[in-house]
Amino acid sequence: MTGPHGGPGGERSQLTEEAEIESLLGTLEDSDCRAIIEATTSEALSASELSDRCDLPLSTTYRKLDQLTEVGVLDERVRLSRSGQHTSEYTLQIESIQLSVDPESGVVLQISDDQPLQSDGSLVAGAD
Description:
Helix 2 (31-39) crosses helix 4 (58-70) and helix 3 (47-54) crosses helix 4. The protein is α+β, with helices and mostly antiparallel strands. It has helices spanning 18-29, 31-39, 47-54, 58-70, and strands spanning 12-15, 45-46, 74-80, 87-92, 94-102, 106-113, 123-126. A four-stranded antiparallel β-sheet has the order 2-4-3-7. The protein has a three-stranded antiparallel β-sheet with strand order 1-6-5. The two termini are 15 Å apart. A hairpin with a 6-residue loop joins strand 3 and strand 4. It contains four helices and seven strands. It has one domain (12-118): Arc Repressor Mutant, subunit A. The radius of gyration is 15 Å and the shape is elongated. This is Helix-turn-helix domain-containing protein. InterPro entries: WH-like_DNA-bd_sf (IPR036388), WH_DNA-bd_sf (IPR036390).
């Protein structure tokens, strides 16, 4: 599945496919996923940083990060360091989600994208 966002800068996109809507809503229903979303609202964080802040086992954190990046809520980037010890970090990619019911389209999720965050003191490059 591709992420629901089209790019940075406050763009809006819509999900109308039932499977995409169910996947996103299911992810948002998960309390661990919501904790990770809340933790990434102000800065990009690594999996270990998120594990500590959200009081989750690292294996659970990675599983939830996979879910959140799969549905396009988070973006994975590479945090470059001068020491050569690069790590993945995760940034929040949405600003808001609005659910509506349209007589012609049915259930529609409208997503407003947020600006990608960059952690202080690090260079960020897109991860593959």
